[in-house]
Queue: 4 jobs
Job 1
Amino acid sequence: MRIAINPLQINPQDALLVIDVQNDFCPGGALAVAGGDEVIPVIHRIAPRFDHILLTQDWHSPHHASFAHAHPGKHPFEQTEMSYGPQTLWPDHCVQGTPGAEFHPALRLTQAELILRKGFRPQIDSYSAFFENDRTTSTGLAGYLRERNLTRVFLVGLAYDYCVGYSALDARRLGFPAIVIRDACRAIDLNGSVASIEAQFVAAGVELVDSVSLSSSVDPNRQLGVPLKHL
Ligand code: VGL
Ligand code: ZN
């Protein structure tokens, strides 16, 4: 899929959605995404352009139904059938209150206005920041964006082919323009998941851009915050 590099104007009604930049998705974590921590400097470079930054946090109950161990005989990365359809099974990750569920300590986005937790219902996984994997249970994010008159979303974080991708597709489904900043994401890449999500991006009108499109006119006076874990 083509990644646009032409300059893109950010406006005050845009929101930067930072998806799941948590220890378990970074090297050394329980569901490490290759190069997951490399998204952080890219996010820091573009964050000052945005008036509104929202974070998501994958936040699972201890024996969550998306964990392979909750399905006897099943192994991580295998598929199973849930009441709502096929579901990939994962190693235990981002368990509520554990170090793996914390934001990566290098992530400095104290200006973030919302931390949205998802995946906390024991029986339903939630890749998307908007809907859980049954595609109908809402997280409330669409209402939040609408009430705050945030009309367009830019997406960064982990993982490109799961939580970032599903969030972008749902944003389109709800009528929000959605732009994924490709070099500020890293993918899991399981069984063709990158090709699959990109085919869906094309069909849904999700745009892919490189961060150079956004980084031209950063206000040098905007400072980075302190690590989120010190809040
Ligand atoms: C994610 C798999 C399971 C993600 C979360 O953040 O992309 N992937 N849970
Ligand atoms: Zn998860």
Job 2
Amino acid sequence: MQQHDTQELRQQDSRHHLHPFTDTKELGDNSRIITRAEGIYIYDSEGNRILDAMAGLWCVNLGYGRQELVDAAQQQMQELPYYNNFFKTAHPPAIKLAKKLTELAPEHINHVFFTGSGSESNDTVVRMVRRYWQLKGQPEKTVIIGRRNGYHGSTVAGASLGGMAPMHEQGGPMLPDIEHIAQPYWFGEGREMDPQEFGLLAARSLEQKIKTLGVERVAAFIAEPVQGAGGVIIPPESYWPEIQRICDHYGILLIADEVICGFGRVGQWFGSQHFNIKPDLMPIAKGLSSGYLPIGGVLVGDRVADLLIEQGGEFYHGFTYSGHPACAAVALRNLELLEQEGVIDRVRDVTGPYFARQWATLASHPLVGEARSLGLLGALELVADKGTMARFAPGIGSQCRDNCFQSGIVMRSVGETMVVSPPLVITEAEIDQLVTLARRSLDLTARQLG
Ligand code: PLP
């Protein structure tokens, strides 16, 4: 095993490395250096073992240390480390992965466009959607409607589609012709209403927006089946059927961003299948390769693909690493393993329901206003007063997140919401441990508050 000088690494890190989503000045020489991982655990340079309840960044679905994925990468790197899929060429890993993905996807989806990440997938979505309406003879249909507090990536198109106000405030303007509607966040924004009524109301804000803009301008609606980075916001059951009805009624394209929900996170291959919706486009990434190598894509439904193929001619779009052979080989092996080992069925039938029961016990903690989950996604709402559900001043989430690290677990904070998304291979015993460590972190936070 490699030895690391933690202090030296930290100094070099703060001197030279601009981290994503980090206040570099505040970080100083304090980065936590992760050096290895196995199963659901990561290890830092000081030898601490930490339960990774976030599966990296919602992506290490098969867990760490899978030799089969290492072997797939090595074999492909030796045989053909790189070639592209531009200008009428292709290679076996990209072809086989495309076939496999379209077998797993809902029936009306038979094509995939490969990218290197979720953000690139959403950039691709914007170009594809606008091209679609241009080919339909309605080029004025350019507006894409997203949701406040949605997350679709960090490229200009990804940040614009997303509804993260702090991202919009930095270095605008964002892309034109992107609009946002309300999110279906019952705990945060609709608690005085019945959840199903609230779900309908949130969905109908799409209809309102279409009417305000004029349907002749609206191209598509984009949303995550469950908002991940926004705080694991699980919509009421009434929400998605109403969204589907509105998209169908007005003939606009429905885009389900499956970057987190895809590949088993909620107990189906895709979140759209859980919610029984029929998206025209599904951006994917993360769990596609369990995060072992960077790869993403857009699953393209027949409505869009047929027009692009039949009438579109050359699509002037693509990335050097679209369908990169080593990434595609690892992704293909990852999908085979998820299938052969019945990982997703286990999430649906065994670990998801078990997690739901255990996670729900945290609702009795004095700091927790709500404990919700779906599949292997979970969230805790931190409140100062369980009677009124009054919130703490900002900062409680990051305080609790730091305490999680102290307690030996990675959880993420989104404002005052703590979220988890563990590897899908987590066992029932490990779920018990996850919940125990989460409780310990909450206790520590409560003690600090006095
Ligand atoms: N879409 C969703 C729903 C995401 O959660 C993310 C990343 O967290 C992205 C897109 C962007 O993916 P990437 O970070 O691979 O660009």
Job 3
Amino acid sequence: MGEIRLHMFTSNINCSNNTPFLPQKDLLPAFYMNNSNAQPHRSRLNLAASAFFTTILAIILPIIVAGCAAQTGAVSAKPNPISTGLPAVPAAIAPQMGAGAAGSATNRAPQPQQIPAAPLGPRPKVLIIATGGTIAGAQEQPGTTGAYRAGSLTAEQIIASVPELPRYADVESEQFSNVASTAITPAQWIALSRRINKVLSERKDLAGVVVTHGTDRLEETAFFLYLTIRSDKPVVVVGAQHPATGLSPDGPINLLGAVRTAASTAAVGKGVMVVMDDRIISARETRKNYQRVGGFSGGDMGLLGVVASSGVEFFFAPVRKHGSQSEFDLAGVDSVLPRVELTFSYPGGTGVTFDTLPAAVVVATTGFTRAEGTSYQALRRKGVVVATAFPSGDNVTAVGGGEGGPPAGATSATSATSATGANGGRGGAGGAGATGTAAGTASGSAIDQPPLPPQVTVQHLTPQKARILMMVALTKTHDPRELQKIFLQY
Ligand code: ASP
């Protein structure tokens, strides 16, 4: 007869508070023989019963162990599949959150589990620069889906919520600001870009930089950095859709993915990226489609790669100018960028007028009305650069003039009449209407006019990103032909 001693199991599954979490007789009545002397820790089972018993234990043992871990905060010493080849996570890297900016007892982040200590070897160094946003958001009633205040937790508090970070990187942090991203201004873009350029040029030991940011303006800041960070080291911008102290915060997993990406040698030369929901997206293409988890995408251009449990995996690389190829040096730039307005074209639209003329206007349009054409042409005559971009940002207009050349419509500075139907024509990718119609319909008196400065056609950029490229490009030139070249390169 076989004999199984239950204490073999119970002794291994005692919780640290000594509460026996064991298969007691009342829990497992079927395990006991019809033996009035049967004791929980010393039971004789017949062979037939033992097979059944073993099967049942195989099922319940993991549940029991999980129960213990949940009670004590302990984590199994068994190797974690994702830690293979990587150092384990040290203890005491998960200090209490919720102190400081959000430190009231009712305003605390979920407590991360303590993970046993282990020596850590050399790991890539990553600097986390925190700017605020929902990823640093504190819920009025923690653990709920209710109202919260973005930009409440500090960089250290956000980092403390991700005990796994040290497994992948030696993390440092800086608090750049702590605001909702709607409060981020172009002046702050410049300051942030300067800071990152400085630290990447001075700190050869840094593998990369992560910027935590609100999601409302995340794609704009990321694209500005994409254009102006003149380094090939990875810079990753990350946010969250759920606040740090709310129900199911996504910030911790997003931050982990961002740090893993910034620490990855595979990310070198890929430009500024956004990591959300394990997706690695070029900052040039990133867009916030909706305010829910999974709301960030790269539109038609898709993802550069993914953060997988096995590692950071890239499938594509951006080929437009970025990083060390960028010509946009902010060193000599004032903290005020040239003013660029963003307008919409719509049925019945009549265009815009300004009391004080901006340097440029980006118009979100698929084609001007007659009146809009007249209005924007008048602005061009006054020296305002006019650029057109599809509202979707997904259009690639057939820009004329050959590779890298100016658009067909734009080259004809002599007369608006010649621009009718130009810039790719109706047979082109569909963006022609904006330029061609604008110029062509307003051409009546063009013969007596000085040459009309060409219009800039935007390829595959959202209007709000086209505005940012225009602001940056205007620090180099105000010539629409040169600006068009820049728009074809970045
Ligand atoms: N209002 C927040 C912000 O942009 C939204 C977010 O982070 O998701 O800062």
Job 4
Amino acid sequence: MVKAHIAPSILACDFTQLGSQCQHAHSSGADWLHLDVMDGHFVPNISLGFPVIQSLRNLIPKGSGVFFDCHMMVSNPEQWVEDLGKIKVDQFTFHYESTKDPLALIELIKKNGMKVGVALKPKTSAEVVDALGDLVDMVLVMTVEPGFGGQSFMPEMMPKVEYIRNKFNHLNLQVDGGVGLGTIDAAADAGANVIVAGTAIFNAEDQEKVINVLKQKVND
Ligand code: DX5
Ligand code: ZN
């Protein structure tokens, strides 16, 4: 069975305290950091980009055991692959809807030393994964329309998660958007094992407790 990974989305951080908040999430039990890159074009919001990720990687280097999971909500994702590979980002997740040639992009990401994720917006069918599931390390099923933190979880995405889990038993399967203590059961039951949570973790009084519960629900 695939193992649980908890990936706090830094979009919910207080950006004036970004470094220490990321370190705190790690010491509270999160082994991934989910870095939401938005360009104001693919999605109607701008978040953070290369210099911020570079600073964070310098503060929390690859050897620290924190997996840098970049969720690229950008048009022309090809443009950022080389730069992110150079600073040792662990995984580059592109949106299926953002590229004309997913196969070439998958190869480019691998060539630059990163694992590959492919993300599906809510309206994109799970069947697009049929041809890609054996080529990537992770599929991200969006459980909100990408662009903003703090939105409500879409339970109607769970059949999509189930479909992909049934076809690809060993694949990391990520859910992102509105996931927290009230929605984790649905996601875990459907077969998700990589849990992104922004507000549910960074707004919690006891982050360690929230992270532990999320992890347990997946591993049980
Ligand atoms: C939304 C982002 C998410 C978001 C999750 O477009 O991809 O990662 O930050 O935030 P919450 O967990 O608050 O919904
Ligand atoms: Zn995200």
